[in-house]
Amino acid sequence: MDVIARQNFTEPTAIQAQGWPVALSGLDMVGVAQTGSGKTLSYLLP
Fold first, then answer.
1. Beta-carbon count within 10 A of 16 CB
2. Gene3D superfamilies from the entry (predicted)?
């Protein structure tokens, strides 16, 4: 989490805020969002 804080991430993007609960629940997820919106972190961080 220190690395994330050092990158100036202060709050999740929309795709992350919506995707994290799904990913943490163990369900499969498909996320569609623009390039650069944080999709990769929405499934890697949880």
1. 22
2. P-loop containing nucleotide triphosphate hydrolases
Confidence (pLDDT) at 15: 92
Q: Which domain holds residue 41?
A: 1-27+34-45
What total number of domains does the chain contain? 1
Is the pLDDT score of 42 beyond 90? no
The structure's pTM equals: 0.73
In angstroms, rounded to a whole number, what is the distance separating the alpha carbons of residues 44 and 31? 13
What would the 3-class secondary structure string for 28-44 be? Answer: CCCCCCCCCCCHHHHHH
Q: Is 7 exposed, middle or buried (0-12, 13-18, 19+ CB in 10 A)?
A: exposed
